Amino acid sequence: MKTTYNGLIPSIILGVILLFISSYSIMAQTVVKGAVYEQKSDNSLEPLIGASVRWANAKSGVLTDTEGNFSISKKPENHELIVSFVGYKTDTLMVHTTGFVKVLLQVAGQLNEVTVTSSPTNIDRLNPIQTEFINTKTLAKAACCNLSESFETNASVSVSYADAITGSKQIQMLGLSGNYVQTNVENIPSVRGLATTFGLNYIPGTWISSIDVSKGASSVVNGYESMTGALNVELQKPDDSDKLYVNTYINSFGRGELNINTARKLNDKWSVGLLTHGSGQSISIDQNNDTFRDMPLFGLATALNRWKYQSDRMMAQFGIKGLYENRTGGQNAADFVNKPYYEFGNRTKRVEAFAKIAALFPEKPYKGLGFIMNASVHDANAYFGLTSRSYTGLQKTFYSNLIYQNIIDNTNHTYKVGASFIADSYRESYLDSAFHRNELVPGVFGEYTYVIPEKFTLVLGGRMDFHNLYGNRFTPRIHAKYDLSSNTHLRASAGKGWRMPNAIAENFAMLVNSRQLLVLDQIRPEESWNYGASISHDFKVGTRNANLTLDYYRTDFNNQLTVDMESAYYIKFYNQRGKSYSNSFQAELNYSPIKRMDVKLAYRLFDVKNDIVTSSGELALLPKMFVNRDRVLVNVGYATKFDKWKFDLTWQWNGKRRIPDASHEHVQTIDSEPVYAPAFSNINAQVTRGFYRWELYVGGENLTGFRQNNPIMSASNPFSQHFDASMVWGPITGRMVYVGMRWKIPSKV
Predict the structure, then answer these.
(1) d(CA 700, CA 735)
(2) Which residues are paired to 589 by β-bridges?
(3) Which positions ≥6 away from 740 have C-beta within 8 Å?
(4) Parallel, antiparallel or unpaired: strands 675-677 and 368-408
(5) What is the pLDDT of residue 112?
(6) Alpha-carbon distance 117 to 128, whole Å?
(7) Gap between the Cα atoms of 591 and 539, Å rounded
C-alpha cells in the first residue's frame, strides 16, 4: 500500500516565512530559596543563624533559620540579593536562577564565594508540574554511556531491551512505553518517529548536563505529543562547560567508549563548543551458547558543534550535529560456513541543525520573545535474517515554534502565547509494502498562570493543531500546586495528548521472529487523557533531612494502536477495541541518615490493561504484555570529604509480568489462562576515586548474574515458523564489570 502527498517543501518554506520558530523563555520566579553558610578552614560548612537576606531595592528582608535556610519573595524589579551577617563580609549577588542559592560568607577581609547548587535528585518545588531533576552528580553514579543508561537510580523511568537481537532499548513511564513520553533535547522534540528505535542510544551521557523528568500531561508550549510525561535533556553549553573534558570507558563484554568535549569563550559575548563521542562493541558474546550474539556488534560516531552569543538584550544559539552507526546482530557468519545463518543489520545516518534566538528585557525579566528552529534528516536501513527481508526508512523533519511571554498587571498573572509548525516526511518500506506520508501540522497555543506566592499556582493551557491528514485537534491541559505548608506540596493535573504512531519503526522487536505481520486497520492517531495527583513532604528524622513523595496517575486511551502478540503465528496491528488504560502508583523516600550519605527507597505499582480480540472474536481485558506490576528500588550513595571516594549501590526488584504463551498448540479464548515471567532482582554498584582534575571509576552491573535462560525460541532453527526473539522479559547477559576515567580542565584555568 503506497500513498504520496505533494507540497511538503513549499509548506516548509511557508513555515519559515511565517517565523514559526521558537525558543523557551523562563517564567519569572516568585520565590527564591537558599541557605547561608560559613566555610571553615577544613572546607566544612556551618550554617549561619540569623543572617540577613534582602533585595537591594527593598527596605526589609528575611533572616535565616536554625539551619541557615531562607525563603524570600521576588518581584520583577528584584535582581540584586544582599546577604550580610555581623563579623562577615557582605555579599551581593545577581539572582537569575531557579536553582537553590547557596551562599558562603567569609570572615571580613577574606574572599567571598557564591555558588548555585542542588541535591543529587530533587523535585522542582516551584513547578506545578511534578518534575524531578537529574543532574551530573546523579548521572555520575553509574557509567551512563548514553541517555538510555541515565535512569539506573531513577524510580519513575525504567529501561529494558526490546528484544534479544537488535540491542534497541525502550523506556517506560506510568506503565506505558516511551512512545507516549515526549522526549525533548533542549525543548526540541527529538526521540520520535524513526528515531524511536535507537534514539536513546544516540544521546551520549557525557553530553548531558541535566534531565527534567515530568509526569503526566506537560505544558502545551512544547507540543501535543506528551501523553504520560516528558523528558527534557539539557546538553553542555559552551559558555559554562569545562575547557576540556575527556571520558573513557571499557567493559568486560568488549564495549569501549571515548568522549571528548571542548569549550571556549571567544570574548565576552561569543563562545563555541564541540561535543564528540565514539563507541563500539567489538567482541561477540554468547553466554547461553545458543549460537546468537547476546548483544549486537556496533560502531557509533557522533559530534555536535554549537555556538552561543549572549548580550544584555539578546541570546542566540545555533549548531549542527551528525551521527553514523552500523550494527550487526544475530548469528556469527564465521560459524556457519556454507550454511544459512540468521543475521540482523542496521545502518543509521542522521544530520540535524538548530538555531535559537531570544530577545531579552533586563528591565522586565518577566517578558520574553523567542524563536527556535530545528531540521533533521534520519536515514535508516535494516535487514532481518536474510538481506531480502529488508527495511528502509527516511524521515525529514522541520520543527519550529514562536513564544511570547508577559504579565497581566503583575507577576501573579503571567501568560504565554505562540504558534508552532512541524512537518514530517516519512518514506518507509518493509518487504513488499511501502508506507509513505507527509504530515503538516501548524498550531497555536496559549497558557495562563496564576500565582499566590508561596501558596497556590494554577496553569491553564490549550492548543489547537491543524493536521493536514487528521483534521483539527484541540489539546487542553491544567496543572495546579497548593502549598499545604512550607514543607508540604500538593499537585494535580489533567490533560489530553495525541500522536501519530509508526507501526514498523516503533516495533522493530516484532520483526525478529517468524510470525506474520497483519495490519488490520487504517492506523489512526493515538489519543489519551491523563489525570494525576502527588504530594511531597519534607521532614526530619532527628536532625537529618528526609523527603517523602506519593503520586498516582491514570491514563485512559480514546484510541491506541494495539500490538497483538497473543497468537503464536501472527502479530496483529489494529486500532483500539474496547478499553485501554494504565494506573500508576509510586511512593519514594529520600533520606540522608548521616553526612554525605543519600538513601532512596521507592515502590511502584502498575495496573495496565487493554482489550484484545480473541480467536473467537470476543474482547478480553488482559494485563499489558511485558509490564511488571511491582518494582522496588533501593539506592545508597556515600562520599568521603571533598568527594575523594564515592560509593554507589543500587538494588532493583522487578515483579512478574505477563508474556505471550510460548505454546504453539495454544488456542486463544476469552478464558485463556495468562502466562507470567518470574520476578527477578539485580544489583549495580560503582566506586569512584577522585584525584586532581580527574576521576577513576570501577563498577559492575547485574552483579547477581541473573539472566533469562532462553530469550530466543527455536534458536537452533531460526528459519522455522517457531523462531521468536521478541519475548524478552529479563536481562539477556549476566554479570558485567567496567572501568573508566574522567579528566577535565576547568574553564577558569
Answers:
(1) 7
(2) 548, 601
(3) 143, 247, 248, 249, 250, 257, 696, 697, 698
(4) unpaired
(5) 38
(6) 21
(7) 9
Task: Pick the closest to residue 323 from 409, 170, 207, 229 (CA basis).
Answer: 207
Strand partners, 218: none
Spatial separation of the C-alpha atoms in residues 298 and 646, rounded to whole Å: 31
pLDDT 10s digits, 413-434: 999 999 999 999 999 999 888 8
Spell out, as residue ranges, where the chain has pLDDT lower than 50.
1-29, 109-121
Instruction: List Cβ neighbours of 458 (8 Å cut-off, separation of 6 or more).
Output: 128, 449, 450, 451, 478, 479, 480
Return the half-sphere exposure (C-beta side, CA atoms, 13 A cut-off) of residue 337.
1
Task: Give the β-pairing of 736-745 and 244-251.
Answer: antiparallel
Q: State how far the alpha carbon of 83 is from the alpha carbons of 48, 86, 281, 459, 561, in Å.
A: 11, 11, 53, 33, 57
Cα–Cα nearest to 375, from 426, 437, 319, 439: 319
Write down the number of H helices and E strands in the chain.
2, 45
**pLDDT value of position 116:** 39
Map residue 614 onto helix, strand or coil: coil
In 3-state terms, what secondary structure has residue 64?
A: coil
User: What's phi and psi for 9, nearest 5 deg?
Assistant: -65, -45
Q: Which residues contact 326 (CB under 8 A, 6 or more apart)?
A: 298, 299, 345, 346, 347, 348
Alpha-carbon gap, residue 135 to 243, rounded angstroms = 19
DSSP 578-599: S-EEEEEEEEEEEE-SSTTEEE
CB count within 10 Å of CB 48 equals 23
Q: How far apart, in whole angstroms, are the C-alpha atoms of residue 153 and residue 588?
A: 12
Q: Which residues contact 130 (CB under 8 A, 6 or more apart)?
A: 123, 214, 215, 216, 491, 493, 532, 534, 551
Write out 665-689 in H/E/C secondary structure: CCCCCCCCCCEEECCEEEEEEEEEE
Q: Residue 449: helix, strand or coil by DSSP?
A: strand
Residue type, 179: N
Q: Can you say how many angstroms the Cα of residue 104 is from the centroid of all Cα atoms in its chain?
A: 33
At residue 8, the pLDDT reads 44
The residue whose grid cell reads 554468547 is 286
Instruction: Give the burial class of 656: count Cβ atoms within 10 A of its Cβ; 0-12 exposed, 13-18 middle, 19 or more buried.
Output: middle
Cα–Cα–Cα angle for 188, 9, 404, rounded to 5 degrees = 40
The per-residue pLDDT for 335 is 84
Q: Where are the beta strands (DSSP E) in 194-338?
A: 208-215, 229-235, 244-251, 255-265, 270-281, 297-310, 314-330
345: left (phi over 0), alpha (psi -120 to 50) or beta: beta
Between CA 142 and CA 167 the distance in angstroms is: 20
Separation CA 342–CA 330 (nearest Å): 6
Determine the Cα–Cα distance for residues 703 and 697; give it in Å rounded to an integer.
16
List, in sequence order, every beta strand (DSSP E) within 409-525: 410-430, 433-452, 456-467, 471-483, 488-499, 516-519
Radius of gyration of the chain (CA): 26
pLDDT at 669: 57
Taking residue 386's Cβ as centre, other Cβ atoms within 10 Å add up to 12
Question: What is the rounded end-to-end Cα distance, in angstroms, of the chain?
Answer: 61
**Strand pairing report for 368-408 and 410-430:** antiparallel
How much is the pLDDT for 61? 77
For the segment 508-561, what is each residue's pLDDT rounded down to a tens digit?
888 998 888 888 999 999 999 999 999 999 999 988 989 999 999 999 999 999
CB of 452 closer than 8 Å to CB of 427 = no
